[in-house]
Structure formats: structure tokens, C-alpha cells
Amino acid sequence: MKEREKWDSKMGFILACVGAAIGLGNIWMFPWRLGSYGGAAFLIPYLLFVFTLGWTGLMEEFAFGRDQETGAISAYENVFKEKGMSFGSKFGILPVLGVTGVFIFYSIVVGWILKYFTLSVTNSFVGIENMPAFFGSFAGNPQSIFWHALAIILTLLIVRLGVKDGIEKMNKIMMPALFLLLIILLFRSLTLPGAKEGLAFLLVPDWSKLKDPITWVMALGQSFFTVSLGGAAMLVYGSYLDKDSDIPTSAFQTAFFNTIASLLAAFVIIPAVFAFGLDPKAGPPLLFITIPKVFQQMPGGYIFSVIFFLSIIFAGLSSAINLMEVPVEALIDRLNISRKKSVLIVGLGAFLVGLPLDLSMARFGAFADTVTIYLVPLGAVLSAVIFFWIYGIGNAREAINEGSSRPLWKIWEPYAKYIFTSVALLVLVLGVLFGGIG
């Protein structure tokens, strides 16, 4: 049996996980949610959920993967076999399908980012008068196919190099660069005339929002999905860990740096949006319609637009790499084929399935909603139930504590088994009721 790939360093693993967690949701969802649901008040439920639920979920997926030394399908199968049941792999397929589904539509969005980066480099934003019309003529139309293909090819080229030489090395470059670029943009944004209103939008707490249940629901959804919980993505990264790795510390660091990136993005985007009198609550259009308008009006907008969209490429690609690795590992594991063959199959398959989404924003939206509202949360629930309940909470805590400098106490077990699992199920239910909360 071929020896399983491993991370080259603990820092490389952390940066890869931070890269997986930091995605486009940090850029276009977190800033307006922070401002729309109470500013600094929103941070109270958000941070509470990230560093309790998110941290626990990360520990669970990291430990599950490391303990079984395989991805979701075989990990679930192994646990069920130990209990005398033979259908575990069927449950494992669901989170893999969920993550693969995210990769299919996410690669299209990364393609849009690549297109906008080229517009920045060629200084083409200045010639676009109607940004909503421009985006509408591009997204959901054949013009996006080339950029979709380019996004998949870039991701494919990195993933085919393997865990150490591809995923880890690229994240060691992209993650420090991402934080550096965001810090540069932060100084530019905060020094714009009118930026103070944006700071007030983000920092002045509206305590009344904490009385509104929707604030807590949105904070829960944002915190849960911002660290990429879904029963497969972080599990497969955990499967490449050595036994002496400190999982509680790694999970905390992943949640911490992901939160810092989200806050940086918010303090880059929202003050600039206010400075030019644009809509800070635009949601997803913020990235592709509102922000380009900012750079059209900003002194030195050319250079700052290039820096901004380069940073977004790093955020998008680092997540796409993680998403692609899930089905790639599954094919390697289940079909016993080479990484190169698996990457080609996944890349070509994702591109072909995504083609109809390139041609219709209605199809794109319906597909993305199905995957993110139903499949991904279901995968998170399955992972929690199988690891904490079927594998056993005692075994789970032992797996998490292996290599830890500060082992979890036994008092943690009821929290993980009952509270975390129940909340994971609640996230699924709330997502269905609200049409998505992540």
C-alpha cells in the first residue's frame, strides 16, 4: 500500500487550513453582515460561536481524518465496520458530493475574480460606465467560460503537485501575501475622506440588534461555515497530519487567523464604500459591482484595484485547492489511481458539470443554494454524529488529544456530543427555513 502523503511542517498545515477557511464569503458576506446586524454588537455572538462551535468542529474534522488516515468515505466506512455495519461509505459519499458541488460553482466565481483582476491590470474599469450591466453581460453568459476553465486549470496545476509540493507550498506563499495586501489596502481605505462613517457602521454597537433572533442566526451561520465545516474538506486535510500534531492548538489558530482576515476585509471594504456614497449592504454584488466603482473614483485606484483583486485571487484559489482535494483524494483512495489521473478526472468533470451554470445565473443560483443549504450542512451533521456518537465520544476525545500540549478534559465530552451535534443539526434546519445562513 502506498504511503500516505503528509504535511511538511505544522506551520504549513495551519496556513493551508487558514487558506481553506478564508474564502470569498469572508470578503462579500462578513463585512455587510457585521454592519447590518449591529456592528461591534454582532461580534459578540459571532466570536462566541467561532471559538466554541467552530473550534470544536475543526478539532472534530482534523482528528477524524488523522485518526483514520483517510478521507470522508473510507473514514466513515471504517467506523461503521468497527460496529459491524457495512454501509458507512454511503454516508461518506454525501459530504464529498457536497464539497465537490461547492467546488463546481466556486470555480466559476474564481473565474470571475480572474477576469476582474485582468480588468484591473489593464486599467479597464475606467471605461465601464454601467458596472451592473457589465457584470450582467459577463456572468451567466458564454464569456465566462474561458475564465471558468482558467480557474480550474490553475487549481488543478497546484493540486496535482500533491500535499507537500503543491497545496502546502502555495499556501505558504499566498497566505502571508494575502494578509500583507489586506494591510496595505487597510491603510488606503482608512485614510479616505468619509471613511469615518464606515468605521462607525462597523464599530458603533447597536445593542438592540442582540434582541433580534435573526442576528444570532446569521452570526451562527457565518461562524459555522467560515471555517469550512462540512464533514469532508477539513477532514481530508487532517488525514495528512502526523500523530504528534497539536489539534486543539491548530484548530484555534485556524479560527483566529480566519477571523482576523474577515475583520481586515471588513475594514478595507466598508470604509471605502462609505467614502464614495455606495451601498454597504449590497451583499454578494459588493465584490463585483460596488468595489469596482470605488476604484473608479479612488485616487490611485489603478494600483489599489490590482492589489485588491490579487488578494481576492489568493483567497479564492486557496479555498478552491481545498475543495478540489476532497474529490481528488476520494478517487485516489477508492479507485487506487494516481493523483495526476484523479486531478484530471475531477477537473474535467467539474468543468463539464459547471458549463450549464456558466450560461444561466438562475441555474447557478439554484445549484449553489441546493449545495450550500442542504448538502454541506448535512455533511457537517453526519461527521459530528459519526465521530462523536458512533465512533464514541471517548475515542473522539482521545483522538483529538493525541499530540496535544493541553489535552481536553472529560467535561468537554457532553458539550461536543450533545450541544455541538445539536447545533450542527440546528444550522441545517435554520438554513432550510431561511434559505441559507452561511
How would you describe this structure to a colleague?
This protein has one domain (10-353, 374-418): Amino acid/polyamine transporter I (Up-down Bundle), CATH 1.20.1740. With 438 residues, the protein is mainly α. The chain is globular. It has 19 helices and no strands. 55% of the residues are buried. The mean pLDDT is 94. It is 77% helix and 0% strand.
Quick summary:
The chain is mainly α and 438 residues long.
Topology readout:
Blueprint: H1 10-21, H2 24-28, H3 30-36, H4 40-68, H5 72-82, H6 88-121, H7 131-138, H8 145-159, H9 163-190, H10 195-203, H11 213-226, H12 233-238, H13 247-275, H14 285-297, H15 301-335, H16 339-358, H17 361-390, H18 393-401, H19 412-434
Q: What gross morphology would you assign?
A: globular
> Could you give a short account of the major beta sheet?
none
The CATH class is identified as: Mainly Alpha
What fraction, in percent, of the residue positions are helical? Answer: over 70%
How many domains make up the 3D coordinates? Answer: 1
**Average predicted local confidence, pLDDT:** 94
Which structural category fits the helices and strands? Answer: mainly alpha
Model regions low in confidence, pLDDT < 50 over at least 5 residues: none
What's the β-strand tally? 0
Tag the structure with descriptive keywords.
438 residues; Amino acid/polyamine transporter I; single chain; mainly alpha
